[in-house]
Amino acid sequence: MSERSNLWGGTFDITLEMEDQSIESGHRHYYDRSAYQSPLEDEVKQGWLLRPAMDMEMKRKKKKRCFNINPTVLIRTLVVVAVLAGFVALVAFLATRRHHHRPPPVQDNYTIALQRALMFFNAQRSGKLPANNHVSWRGDSCLDDGNGYLNGLEGGYYDGGDAVKYSFPASFAMTMLSWSVLEYSAKYETAGELNHVKDIIRWGTDYLLKTFNSSADTIDKIVLQVGKNSSENCWIRPESINYPRPVIPCSTCPALAAEMAAALAAASIVFKDDHKYSKKLVHGADILFKFATKGEGERYAGGSDPPSNFYNSSGFWDEFVWGGAWMYCATGNSSYIDLVTSPGLAKHAEAFWGGPDHGVHGWDNKHAGAQLLMSRLRMFLDFGYPYEEMLKNFHEQICEIICSYLPGSHNFKRTNGGLIELNHGKPKPLQYVTNAAFLATLYADYLEATLTPGWQCGAKFYPKDAFRDFAKTQIDYILGRNLRHMSYVVGFSDHFPQYVHHKGASIPGYIKHQSCQEGLRWKESKKPNPNTIVGAMVGGPDKHDGFQDNRSNYNFTEPTIAGNAGLVAALVALSDGSKTGIDKNTMFYAIPPFSMPRPPRPLVGKP
Q1: Cα separations (Å) of 190 from 110, 112, 115, 141, 187?
Q2: Do the domain assignments include residue 228?
Q3: In a domain? residue 404
Q4: Range of 238's domain?
Q5: CATH number at residue 436
Q6: CB atoms within 10 A of CB 144
Q7: Which 3 state secondary structure label does DSSP give 304?
Q8: Residue 458, in any domain of the structure
Q9: CB neighbours (10 Å) of residue 545?
Q10: For residue 42, what pLDDT band results from cuts at 50, 70 and 90?
Q11: Which of 175, 271, 336, 372 lies at a 20 to 30 A Cα distance from 319?
Q12: What is the pLDDT of residues 424-441, one digit of tens each?
């Protein structure tokens, strides 16, 4: 007979041996069947005659037994029952108390701030809003953007407080958010925000795909901007805009196109499980990168991006390295790693030279981010020849940059309150501080993932926690640990900016339609904003830790999606997340196994 095992390794079958044992022990478990045979007739009659007397005898014996109970046994029994009852009651009481008084899981400040910072992107959405947008004072807006241009330009994000859509900072924001998801998806999930941040990224990439002919194989222009900044003479809610908004295309814009390629490439890895959408993003990124470089790579001889009043790129070679690195991660195509490790491209990008902005990662300068991304390839994949020399240079450069953030370095000044001055005392410092905090924390996590205890910065060795501590002090400053005791993230703590430079937040939601001139009274109002734009990180203080909570002074009070993307990345990196580290593998999912070619043999004379 075949044996059937249960979950614990036993068997469900009864063997013949078991059956024999049951028969042999049957007399101990069953009544004798002869006991059920019918009694004889005279026995029955005798039973009838004796039944009354027998009943009386039984009652007498019962009564006698009731009065012959041993007192000692009775007392012991009662004591045991009382003890058991008391024990059961105590257990029930403690269980109930624990159930009702168990404190909820404590979220650290970084996780709470992260949840708020993500909500800012909901408030910046343009177009037809989803039902789960959860910003009560926002509604559908600018549904006619780009009518007649390709398939229309509805959607996307307003950059800041003036309802203009700029492709450059939007692309940078999506790249940074995607990078943070690829490194810290487990932390996002622990915070309950993984689906939310993915929705935010997809809202942005869906719009970027509309800004060029993403279904074609080649393109000759992309959209630089939709709308114009008119804060001086027009102050209305985005929902009240009923005039045509200009679309500004661009036919030569290598920096913008390479940044857009980076955004779509990074997002394609985030959405790798949605094969159709991921493939669409990779295709769009590929044609954007070819459009950016004109297929010439390090020999590119084309023009620069056109000048812009607000997001004017200072160069494009750094975007070539940044975009190429993301393209390699998204496709595994070796032509991209060949390009970004070519000495000529690094020389053009001035990747290994100093300067006042060396190490200042932001929407216009990608050197630090690109070098950390390339160092990641070296630290976890160990490419070796022929890429090792350039990857090692990138690695050494990012180590110098991260070291320059530490208090012992003299590369950057600090305010009296402790804020690092990465933009050298210029307005809107916080966007650069959050990016540096993200890079420093990520670098520390790379060290931890490679079992490296720390790093040598000059003559001093710093443990890896020193880099994370730098990030914490800077983010803590932003969240309120500063001389003003003010949080520069709206809705976090009890003291935060009340006069945020934001048209939608400054005008009551019940006002549906008004003219540009009518809306100016809300800009000039002395009352705080009627709508709280939760999670918005404002421009920040000056170099003296001073801050003007003034709606008209956008240098202090305007938030941007590029700034908030860096904030989100830094917050998720620092959040507890049950002590979860980085995800080492997902970013490299498209890179095939690397077969290392042999170095060329040295030239020798003929035998």
Answers
A1: 13, 12, 12, 33, 5
A2: yes
A3: yes
A4: 109-588
A5: 1.50.10.10
A6: 14
A7: coil
A8: yes
A9: 17
A10: very low
A11: 271
A12: 999 999 999 999 999 999
